[in-house]
């Protein structure tokens, strides 16, 4: 059974950095595209970044470029999201999710509608002085 667990959230000051982790079990992270999403209070969920399965290509939302880096450690079966120079607007619950769907070219998608294989429970990030 596919299982995802996010961690690494917390309180961080503006301009600071943090790394979110998405630990997978029941499947191999390099067999799926993994996406990071966030939902701020009163707002819709939005895609932040994703990494595809076979090619390992990455995609970022314009709102987080170039402050965010997604990476994958196959040995640890974990996907990471490094966030630098965080802003109050980054305050949100962050979720990771898995999908087998990619573009015809093998790239991952930032729309949460495609992530039907499984979702984590989320980790909360609060950016505040």
Please give a structural write-up:
With about 130 residues, the chain is mainly β. It is built from no helices and eleven strands. The strands form two sheets. Strands 2, 4, 5, 6, 9, 10 and 11 form a seven-stranded mixed β-sheet that branches. Strands 1-3-8-7 form a four-stranded antiparallel β-sheet, with no helix packed on it. The protein starts with a strand and ends with a strand. The relative contact order is 0.31.
Averaged pLDDT = 95
Taken from the alpha-carbon principal axes, the silhouette is globular
Low-confidence stretches: none
Q: Radius of gyration from the CA trace?
A: 14 Å
Number of helices: 0
| Total beta strands | 11
Spatial gap, N to C terminus: 40 Å
Structural class: mainly beta
Name the beta content range: over 45%
Major beta sheet summary: 7 strands, mixed
- Would you list the SSEs in sequence order as H and E? EEEEEEEEEEE
